[in-house]
Amino acid sequence: MARECVVCGKGRQTGHFVSHSNIKTNRVWEPNLQKVRILVEGRPERHYVCTKCLKAGKVQRAI
Question: 26 with 16: CB under 8 angstroms?
Fold first, then answer.
């Protein structure tokens, strides 16, 4: 299972480090994912959610 946000589907992105001499090597940008308890169909479950979705209130956190 890939680590991605269950709300918006945000996952890792790939690109290149570019040195001063223009040599390109691979790198990865990871989203800020948090494993939180959210309500899914009235039941609390643990899922990965990105912090932008948490701040925007797109999920109902379970207490």
Answer: yes
